[in-house]
Design brief:
By secondary structure, the chain is an alpha/beta fold. The strands form two sheets. It has a five-stranded parallel beta sheet with strand order 3-2-4-1-5, sandwiched between helices. The chain has a five-stranded mixed beta sheet with strand order 6-7-10-8-9. Helix 9 crosses helix 10, helix 9 packs across helix 11 and helix 10 packs across helix 11. It binds S-adenosylmethionine. S-adenosylmethionine (SAM) binds next to helix 5, strand 7 and strand 10.
């Protein structure tokens, strides 16, 4: 029987964030696949866990992934870790999970530290619907195409960025979204100097010009405002009310729903639709 691949998230700055389940999984695994074995060795030493390590990173994913898969198929259990945060989220892992899924090897993701979720939840921006955009490409054409595709995006958008690229990225974001668009710059999350700067793109640019950015950043950007509802005549709105009633809504509920959609008063729609 095949072993299981465990995706084990590790702290993004605060060692206290490693969970008991992650410790237990690392301690129970036959071997650990790590993005950088030197980085993971430090964490394992801190946890007093001794395990055979293999490296699995961006440039050896296919070859190393096949070796890991063979061991899993032979019944061994593997814990996959990245340098920090959740494996497979802007970190190696996606390819190995796909290989396991294809080969019928069980994969178990343990919940834990992840910069995108930590930043989004503290951003103060709408969290109901969001998109994770990862790192913007350094290639000018792909970067422009990526940003252009987001021009009308209404959901909150989350980006990862390196500090030295932050000023240029803020400029590019302001080009597409405008300087008044709200942004939360989430810096050094879970660390001693954690800082959440809730501001606008224009102010963020001004601040970066004064204080060069240092440390790790997640950018959470407000989505575009929804387009104003197309103007609907009272006659059309009343027809919408009738349609909603035919579909089973009460007159009151139909009037309320159409009022929200069109901007007409629900009382007007209710009373006029009775005539
Ligand atoms: N897989 C990781 C995760 O689940 O969060 C992300 C890895 S990605 C290579 C690294 C990026 O995550 C950084 O450039 C930064 O944008 C963000 N990041 C990681 N740790 C962070 C922290 N403590 N504070 C702010 N951003 C962080």
């Amino acid at each position: 029987m095949a072993g299981t691949l465990y995706l084990v998230p590790t702290p993004i700055g605060n060692l206290g964030d490693i969970s008991q389940r992650c410790r237990d999984t690392l301690a129970a695994a036959d071997f650990i696949a790590a993005e950088d074995t030197r980085v993971s060795l430090k964490l394992l030493n801190h946890l007093s866990i001794k395990k055979p390590l293999v490296s699995y990173y961006e440039h050896n994913q296919v070859e190393s992934g096949q070796k890991i898969l063979n061991r899993l198929l032979a019944g061994e259990t593997c814990a996959l870790v990245s340098d920090a945060g959740s494996p497979a989220i802007s970190d190696p892992g996606e390819g190995l999970v796909a290989m396991c899924a294809e080969a019928g090897v069980p994969v178990c993701a343990i919940p834990g530290p992840c910069a995108v979720i930590t930043a989004l939840s503290v951003s103060g921006l709408p969290t109901g619907r969001f998109t994770f955009e990862g790192f913007l490409s350094t290639n000018r054409k792909s970067r422009e195409a990526h940003l252009k595709s987001l021009a009308q995006e209404q959901r909150t958008m989350v980006f990862y960025e390196a500090p030295h690229k932050l000023p240029a990225t803020l400029e590019d974001l302001a080009q597409v979204f405008g300087r008044e668009r709200r942004i939360s710059l989430c810096r050094e999350l879970t660390k001693l100097h954690e800082e959440i700067f809730r501001t606008t793109l224009g102010e963020a640019i001004a601040r970066c010009a004064q204080v060069p950015p240092r440390g790790e950043y997640v950018l959470v950007v407000e989505g575009a405002a929804p387009p104003p509802p197309e103007s609907v005549t009272l006659e059309e709105a009343l027809a919408m009310v009738e349609e909603a009633i035919e579909k089973g809504k009460s007159r009151k509920d139909a009037a309320r729903a159409v009022a929200e959609e069109t901007g007409f008063s629900k009382n007007v729609l209710y009373s006029q639709s009775m005539k």
